[in-house]
Structures are given as C-alpha cells and as structure tokens.
C-alpha cells in the first residue's frame, strides 16, 4: 500500500491509524465518512488479517468508570505498520553491515555525514524560497513527505510541529543511530537563525512517530 495514496476503505482506515494513532470506532467512521457499522465491519476484516487490534483507552479511565465499561481504541499491529514502505530495509541493513566491515565505524560515519550534507543542500535550496517560518516549516514537511516520512506541519499555539508518522529508514536507524543523530541540527540550520528545534517524540525511544517542536526565539 502506498503511504501517500490510500485508495480502498481498508487502506484509508489503515492510513488514518498510521497518521493519527489509536482511535475509537466513531472517530474512524467520521474520518472515512462511513457509518459506525461500516467501520466495525472494516475493523473486523482487518483484525482477522492481523493488521489491527483493539485495546482499552487507559487515558480515559474516569469516563470508563462512569459509563461502566472501558472505551476501546483501535490501533495498528506490527503487521499493520509493516504495510507501509520502509525503502527496502533488508538491502539497507546489508549495505550498512558491509560498509562497517569494509571501512570501519569512521568510514560509516563519513558516509552518513555525506548523506546529511546532501540533505542540507537540497533542503536549504528549497527553503530559501520561503520567507516566513510557517512557510519554511510547511516546505520542510513537504520535502520530508516526498522522502517517505508521511510528514506534516501543525500549529501548536505559538509554535509549529513537524510531525513524521512514518520512518522509511527506521530499520537502518535502529542498527545505526547515526542516521538520525543530527536531524535536530540539520533542521535548525535549514530553518534559519532565530529558530529553536526540539524533538518531543522519537520513534527509536518507543514513540509511534517522530515529532519536532519548532519555535521562534
């Protein structure tokens, strides 16, 4: 399934759970413009395929106690997350291991640095056409989304969030964390002076996505 172009209701529902996280049936039905009964049928089919499962909403314990039963949220399973592209993870891991064997950690670090520099050149050229911080954040989100990160820009009070719902190089980053070690500094440099970038959620730290809070200082 393409992460950018969900077509069937099954794909659209999986996309909603991937991009928005665990949700109740009513919320999913509203997002897909179908009836709750239709959403239940979709979820039952996807659950039978091992792509989704239901869990109790522990964030709403008081409300669950009031109505007498826990509220269920639906979420992607590991197999469900696997429906989204990962840029040929197996080949990437093999290349990382070969680079480490042939060139050592220093050589692998040089390769990662070269990749970072290439990203910075491309990002800086694209963002140079944007004048305001909101425009630059939206353009950065567009660039990252083109690379498979399912990225979007969201307003958060006076700040902005760069939300990445998918990591196409997650397998590589897990085995070599140098791939995402300098994203904060990279985003900082590309967004320009007078901007603070802080990672508030990190996939490799157990979160379901990566989120960066961007503030004018």
Average predicted local confidence, pLDDT: 84
Order of SSEs, N→C?
HHHEHEHHHEEHHEE
Name the shape in a single word.
globular
Rg from alpha-carbon coordinates: 20 Å
Cα end-to-end separation: 40 Å
Structural class, judged by helices and strands?
alpha+beta
Task: Output the CATH topology of the largest domain.
Answer: Muramoyl-pentapeptide Carboxypeptidase, domain 2
Tell me the helix content: 40-55%
Name of the CATH class of the largest domain: Alpha Beta
Strand coverage percent: 15-25%
Number of domains: 2
| CATH architecture assignment of the largest domain | 2-Layer Sandwich
Q: Give the count of helical stretches.
A: 9
Task: Chart the SSEs and their pairings.
Blueprint: H1 9-20, H2 25-32, H3 36-48, E1 52-56, H4 61-67, E2 72-76, H5 78-81, H6 89-127, H7 133-146, E3 151-156, E4 159-164, H8 170-175, H9 183-191, E5 195-201, E6 210-216
Antiparallel strand pairs: 1-2, 3-4, 4-6, 5-6
Helix pairs in contact: 2-3, 6-9
Q: Please, could you describe this protein's structure?
A:
The structure is a single chain. The protein folds into two domains: 9-81, Orthogonal Bundle (Arc Repressor Mutant, subunit A), CATH 1.10.10; 89-216, Muramoyl-pentapeptide Carboxypeptidase, domain 2 (2-Layer Sandwich). α2 packs across α3 (36-48) and α6 packs parallel to α9 (183-191). The chain is 52% helix and 17% strand. It has nine helices and six strands. The chain has helices spanning 9-20, 25-32, 36-48, 61-67, 78-81, 89-127, 133-146, 170-175, 183-191; strands at 52-56, 72-76, 151-156, 159-164, 195-201, 210-216. The protein has 217 residues and is α+β, with helices and mostly antiparallel strands. A four-stranded antiparallel β-sheet has the order 3-4-6-5. Strands 1-2 form a two-stranded antiparallel sheet.
